[in-house]
Every structure is written in C-alpha cells, then in structure tokens.
Amino acid sequence: MNPESKTSPAPVPVPKQAKGAVKEAVAGYLFAAPAIIGFLVLTLYPMLASFIYSFHKITIMSGSQIMEWIGLDNYIYIFSNPSSEFKKSITVTLVYAFVNVVLVIVFCLIIALLLNRRFIGRNMLRAVFFLPSVVPMLATTIVWQMLLQNQAKGGLVNWILLQLGIAPIEFLTDPIQIFSTLFIMSLWTCGGTIVVFIATLQDVPGELLEAIEMDGGNAWHKFLKVTYPTIKPVLFFQLIMCMMTSIQIYTQSVVLSRNGAPDRMTYFINVMIYDHSFVQVGMRGLASAEAWIVFLITLAITIVLFYFQGALKRDDSMGKRRKVRP
Amino acid sequence: MITAPALKYSSIKRAKSKSKAIRLALIALSCLLGIVFAFPLYWLLRGAFVSHTEILARPPVFFPKEPGINNFRLGLERIQFLRQLWNSVSIVVPYVIGTVLTTSFAGYAFAKLRFPLRGMWFVLVISSMMLPSAVTLLPQFSLYTSLGLAGKPALIIPAFFCAGGNAYFVFLLRQFFMTIPVELSEAAKIDGAGHFRIYSRIMLPLIRPAMIVVALFSFINCWNEFFYTMIYLKTEADYTLPMGLYIVNGMRIPNYEQVMALALVVTAPCLVFFLIGNKYFVEGITLTGIKG
C-alpha cells in the first residue's frame, strides 16, 4: 500500500497542495490580521488624516470637530510668523537628539567594552547598568531633580561640588545646563543599549584580534579593524532607535517644568504638539502640520542613516565571501 | 645573538604585567562606574525613608536615623491610592495579555505561514516603529472620541493590534519563530493538525522564553507610558499611579520625602519584575539587538 500511494497518484497531490496553500494563506491573514488592521487603522489612516488636518483650521464646537479649509496657512504660519514656536522647539529637539545619540552610543560602547572581559561580578555589574532603564522616566526625573537641585534645596551634587571648592552649577535653571541634566538622565537609563552591545561583542572573532596583536597592532587598531565592522549593523540599529526616542522626548520636560523652562529650552516637539493639540484651543490643524514636518524630518534622518547601513551591508557580504573561499 | 631573545622575553613579560595592570585598572573603573550608576537608586530609597528635617540637612544624611513608613502613609494620603492602583492594574493586565496574544500571532504568521504580500505587510508593520507618535496623534484621538473610547480603552486597545510600539515585539517573536525547524510543523501537518493547532501546541511551548520577555517588556512599557496617559486620562477618577505621582510632584510640595516615597511606590513593580525576570530581560534584548 505504501509504495502505491507514493508513486501512482501523481496528479492528485497537486490540487491538494494548492488547497493547502490557500488554507495557509487564509490562516496567514487571520494570524496577521491584528497587526495588519492595527497598521491600517491606527497608523496609516491617522497619518493620512493628520496630513489632511494640516490644511485645516479645526475648532471644537459642542464636542464635534469643525474643519475649515485654509490651504497652506498652517505651514506658512510655522515658517514665517515670528510668534510661531516651531523653530525654537525643533531646534532644541534636534540639538538634544543629535548630541544625545552620540553621547549614548559612545558611552554604551565604552561601558560594553569595559564589561567585555571575564571577571567575577561581571553579570552583577551588567544588571546594575541595566536596572535604571526599567525605572519609570517619571521617577528617574524626580530622583535626578533631587540630586541636581540647588544645594540649599537639598541637591547632593552641588553640595559635593561646594565641598570640593568648585562653584555650584545651576543644573535645573540655567538654559544650557538643563541639557546636562537631560543628558545625565538619558545616559543613566541607556542600560538596554549597553546589554545589546555586550551581547554583540561576543560575536567579535577572537582569532582576528589575536592576529592583529601578533602584527603589533594596539587596542585602537583592534577596535577599528575587527570590533567595529562586526558590531556595525547593531550599532546603526541602536542609533536609529535612539534617535527616534530622543526626538520624542516628553516626560523629562513636563516633570521638570510645565512650560519648557528655563527659557523654553525644554519645550520639545512633543511637548509643543501636546499643548497645541489639547491645551490651546483651535490649534489642532497647526499641530498636525507641525507633526507632519517632524515626520518628514525624521524620515529624512532615517533615510540618511539607512543609506549608511546599506553601504556597510555590502562590506559585510564581501567579508563573508572572503571567509568562505579558502 | 644570545642576549636578543632573552631581552625580547623580558620585554614581553614586562608588557604582560603592564597589560595585567591595565586590565585591573579597567575592572576597577567599571566597578566605580557601577557604583555611580547604582547610587541614584539608593538615593531614591534613602529619600523615601528619611524624615522631613533629614532630607534638607547639611551635610546630607546618607543613612536615615529612624527609617519608618511615615512618608509612605502621608504620601499615599495625597493620592487616591487604591483607586489609582486599580486603574493602573486594570490597564496593565489587559495590555500585557493583548500584546502577548497578538504579537505572537503576527510573529508566527510572518515567520512560518506563506501568504500573498507577506513581505510588504511585514515591512509596513515594522516601519511603524520608526514613526514619531505625534503624526498619528490627533486622528487617533478623534477616532477614539467618536467611538466613545477616549479614556482607559484608548490606552489598552493598541496592544490588541500590535500598535503603539508593539511592532518591536512582532519583530522579536518572528526571529524566535524562524529558529524553529520547519520539520516540526511539517510533521504535525502530515498528522492532520491545522495551523492554529500547530501554533498553540508546537510553537508556543517552544517560544515560551520569548513570550516571557515580551510580557515583561510590555508590562514595563505600559507601566511607564506617560505621553498617551496624559492625553487620554482626563478625569481624576481614571488617573493611574504614575499620574498621581506626577500631580503630587507638580504641586511642588515642600515634603519632598513624601514625593520620593511615592516615586518608590511607582518604581517598585518595575524593580520587582526586573528581579524576577533579569535573566529573560538580558536574553530578550540580546536577541532583538543582534537580529536588528
């Protein structure tokens, strides 16, 4: 019976397979339905709708939205009206985001390289570095506020500076120093990236490192020639994700002050869009236009970053081919 | 000719002891940095237990003299603790359930099932990760408002549709599903199992560690979510614990020790879950990071 069913009914399995394929396709769509519906309804539709919103003046009358077409007025207002808050907001956001990304990536890489050697307590240290990243940003901001405050209000860091004979720093009220505060908090909560880098460093081929050592290369050579190419893809992925979260900074700003103090230096894009959408009246069209400009800017940044990643992918495949050949 | 190798040998020895010294110095440096990293958490703990006079004392008090729960009692009186705790829990629990269910469905579909346009849908779903949330904010808000869901439901619903940052988990779980050999599901198919049966009986048990990772992360994400909470929770009856803390902190009360106590209360669940799932956390981010 067995050999018969295997050999003779040649035409039968084909429709059966086709039926199976249809079944599989239906199952695939059913399983993916939440994600697909979610994308269409909660991402694609709102994106397009907010694009349309951005050409309207939107007012709320007895609970319902009244939309009035005003063409490019919102965009013209954003770019040419001196009372528009957009320019300052996007400037501080982008400055924060770029500096923050560089700081976070470099810092995490250094910590990961430090922890990338076997010693007792390594796992515990890794946990210590990771732990702050699960603390709610709200609590993080409150603790650091407490630490960095004016020493008369109980700020510990400024008290230590005073004991060391260094002039206290107004971390929370100086328009430039407030950024130090934000960067400190951001570095304190970047444990996830550190863990990713540590894991990635395990893939760095040890033989190649030894070979460079034999040739008299120093630690910097090793990093540049072996470590960096290995971790590059992960580095770029982390860079992009860090950029996205940095641009959307919100909690730190509203916990430190409600109005972007000092001097609107922490009036970041999301804080402004929140205000224009839900605090001020009749500015929802403007908020949508602002959101769309932010979207286009992040898109441009992502494309540039992906371009670099694409360039490195070619490198990688070449490296692999070279390895396979002998 | 005779001295040269000896010289070389001693210089290697010197270099070795030098590199050993550098090694020790680097380890010491990492330990020092670790202490710096852990310190703010200690400061939070200290702040929650010191008395009102101690929190402003100069020189600073590092160890509270009479640690007590007074700060917690007084701090919790400032918020509607039980109500806010219930609100938080009633958002977090369905959120985590929704996340685990739908992201594993999607991960399974994108990894193991062949269907038309699979690649396109996957890229689209994943790319929503790179979208600034502001660009979808207002239409989402009107959508929820018109459906009468602008409140707690608006914070839970995205979890059931792989939205609101959950695309990341779809990606993570897809990576896990892809590591499961095809032969396993083929064998089950020959035995006549349907796709749901394969998913629930064969796949799920195999990716249990990944599911735990997703559950832990989505708990932390949901508990720490603040932007959308500010938007959708408008009435005091709906406030969550973090909102309560935010309000008390915003009042700029002089009793900072009570704010610290509340901050510790809000942080505690995250720390507990971290301690429970430390191993899974590290594994989880390791996987996402590498496959990225």
| % residues in beta strands of chain A | under 5%
Radius of gyration of chain A, whole Å: 27 Å
Strand percentage of chain B, roughly? under 5%
Runs of chain A in which pLDDT lies below 50 for 5 or more consecutive residues are: 1-13, 315-326
Oligomer: heterodimer
Based on secondary structure, the structural category of chain B is mainly alpha
Number of continuous helical runs of chain A: 14
Sheet/helix structural class of chain A: mainly alpha
How far apart lie the N and C ends of chain A? 49 Å
**Mean pLDDT over the residues of chain B:** 88
Biggest interface goes to: A-B, 98 and 96 residues
Tertiary shape of chain A: globular
Question: What's the arrangement of strands in the largest beta sheet of chain A?
Answer: 1-2
Q: Quick one: overall form of chain B?
A: flat
Number of helical segments with 4 or more residues of chain B = 14
Radius of gyration of chain B: 26 Å
Structure description:
The complex is a heterodimer of chains A (326) and B (292). With 326 residues, chain A is mostly helical. In chain A, 71% of the residues lie in helices and 4% in strands. Chain A has a two-stranded antiparallel sheet. The longest helix of chain A is centred in the N-terminal third of the chain and has 41 residues, at 13-53. Mean pLDDT of chain A is 86; it is low at 1-13 and 315-326. By secondary structure, chain B is mainly α. In chain B, 76% of the residues lie in helices and 0% in strands. Chain B has helices at residues 3-49, 52-55, 70-78, 81-112, 118-127, 134-146, 152-156, 167-178, 182-190, 195-206, 208-224, 227-232, 241-250, 256-291. In chain B, helix 1 crosses helix 14 and helix 13 (241-250) crosses helix 14 (256-291). The longest helix of chain B is centred in the first third of the chain and has 47 residues, at 3-49. The model of chain B has no long low-confidence stretch (mean pLDDT 88). Chains A and B meet through helix 2, helix 4, helix 5, helix 6 and helix 9 of A and helix 1, helix 4, helix 5, helix 6 and helix 10 of B.
